[in-house]
Design brief:
Blueprint (H helix, E strand, L loop, with lengths): L12 H11 L2 H16 L3 H23 L8 H9 L1 H38 L8 H16 L3 H29 L17 H16 L15 H31 L13 H10 L1 H35 L18 H22 L1 H35 L4 H21 L5 H23 L1 H10 L4 H6 L2
Helix pairs in contact: 1-7, 1-9, 1-11, 2-8, 2-9, 2-11, 3-8, 3-9, 3-13, 3-14, 4-5, 4-13, 5-6, 5-11, 5-12, 5-13, 5-15, 6-11, 6-12, 7-9, 7-11, 8-13, 8-14, 10-11, 11-12, 12-13, 13-14, 13-15
Length: 469
């Protein structure tokens, strides 16, 4: 029998709160990975950031409400199981694993693609493309080893780093705006600078959503958090608010500082945030931003590995994934086998993508795959919201149904926008998503006996039972 025990009551609200923020690698997003959204939204990047914030805020509210009733190490998988039962939960759980692995690959590719560009600009150090795969391996290994050190150590580290990176960029951004008041331009919140019109903004929102994707990173920490239902619920909504305000501010600063009419070349700059701060504040600022940028992405890998490994561990507990994946370390009480499987999977995807497609194209491909998976999982979670309320409160609730319908409609619209302008990364990212979905249905068939057992016993999961306190 495998030990499958996590460290109970190891962290508090503050640690849980900053996981959702750190998971998104905010400095990394602001400095470089906004380039994916800018590629389509152009000078309307701040508008795309604002719209994405409002959409995520609605979704965050629903997740927060569910977290008040359900908690555990399964996170979203646990939520769907409580609302729709084990069969749908299996599908949602494996889709969660998919998009998290793609998100980890996305962050690792961000390091492999953008860090060499940053070092070249700031220090005039040119790194050959032959080091892309080694960079991916080192980055992913870092996330793995910090993650398995222990939940208290890893969350304390990520909490501190997330606070520092946001504070520094906000201070620098405010200085740029205050010292150069002529830069201010509210038209970037309109379609004025979007030559691709609403379609470009919609695609920008799709890729900007990826920057928010980790806002629920605290949800799989319910078994290790004090007062989990209260702490996780607050951490989710506060994470969205912090990220949303920061992203809108950062996208505004970098867009007006770069020039709204010049945003067609923004993505090609690879690390425009560093070049912008360097040009306005000097090389010292560029060096500071470069260090924060690298650390932000590494921190994001730690949080993503923490969250994903716990969901996979929980599915192993339930017998819906190999039992070995439920094993935890005897001393550190971390799901190290699940973390290893996730890390290796992300390395395979990112390295093959970089070798076959090239770094930046693979980066966009991973973003598309991660976002598609994210949207599908959130559609399933939001559809479960009224049922969860009925189970715990005794009624579906008209407002709950309305919130679910509105949020799902928005997600469907964003999904449709993905396929308006087909390109290589969109096709490959979508193809990967379809293949994984088909494989998940096969797993559902193979596990049909176990799913029936879970349904007949009315089980809502070992991990959930252990934290209903």
């Amino acid at each position: 029998m495998y030990q499958s025990k996590l460290h109970s009551d190891a962290i508090g609200f503050r640690n849980a709160l900053l996981q959702g923020v750190a998971s998104a690698a905010p400095a990394g997003a602001a400095v470089a990975t906004f380039t994916g959204a800018a590629l389509f939204a152009l000078g309307a990047l701040p508008l795309a950031a604002l719209l994405a914030f409002l959409i995520v805020l609605l979704n965050g509210f629903i997740i927060s409400r569910i977290s008040q009733k359900v908690s555990g190490s399964g996170g979203y998988y646990e939520y769907v199981k409580a609302g729709h039962g084990p069969s749908v939960a299996l599908f949602a759980g494996y889709m969660y694993i998919f998009y998290q692995i793609m998100a980890i690959a996305f962050v690792a590719l961000s390091i492999a693609v953008f860090v060499p560009a940053a070092l070249s600009y700031v220090f005039n150090i040119n790194i050959s493309s032959i080091f892309v795969v080694p960079l991916l391996g080192v980055s992913l290994a870092y996330g793995f080893f910090v993650s398995i050190r222990g939940i208290k150590i890893s969350t304390s580290y990520t909490m501190i780093m997330a606070f520092i990176e946001i504070a520094v960029i906000v201070v620098m951004g405010l200085y740029v705006l205050i010292s150069h008041p002529s830069l201010n331009n509210p038209s970037v919140f309109t379609l004025k600078y979007s030559s691709n019109g609403i379609t470009g903004v919609a695609l920008g929102v799709l890729l900007m959503y990826t920057a928010f994707a980790g806002f629920g990173a605290s949800t799989p920490l319910g078994e290790e958090t004090k007062k989990p239902k209260e702490s996780i619920s607050k951490s989710v909504i506060y994470s969205v608010i912090i990220l949303g305000i920061f992203y809108v501010f950062a996208s505004y600063v970098f867009t007006v500082a770069y020039g709204p009419a010049n945003m067609a070349s923004y993505a090609g700059a690879l690390v425009p945030g560093i070049t912008i701060m360097g040009s306005y504040l000097g090389v010292g600022a560029a060096i500071v931003i470069t260090v924060l940028f690298i650390n932000s992405l590494l921190t994001g890998l730690v949080v993503l590995t923490n969250a994903t490994s716990r969901v996979l561990m929980t599915m192993g507990r339930d017998g819906l994934a190999p039992k070995a994946l439920s094993k935890t370390h005897s001393k550190r009480l971390t799901p190290y086998i699940s973390a290893g499987v996730i890390t290796i999977s992300a390395f395979i995807i990112s390295s093959l993508g970089a070798e076959i497609l090239g770094g930046f194209t693979a980066f966009i491909m991973a973003a598309i795959g991660a976002t598609l998976g994210t949207l599908f999982v959130h559609i399933i979670i939001n559809s479960a919201f009224p049922s969860i309320n009925k189970k715990f409160v005794g009624r579906y609730g008209v407002k709950n149904i309305a919130l679910s319908v509105v949020s799902i409609a928005i997600f469907v619209f964003i999904l449709g926008s993905t396929f308006i302008g087909l390109s290589t990364p969109v096709v490959i990212g979508t193809g990967t998503f379809i293949v994984w979905s088909a494989a998940t249905f096969i797993v559902m068939y193979v596990k049909r006996k176990r799913l029936k057992e879970l349904k007949n016993t009315g089980s809502v999961g070992m991990s959930m039972d252990s934290v209903t306190k």
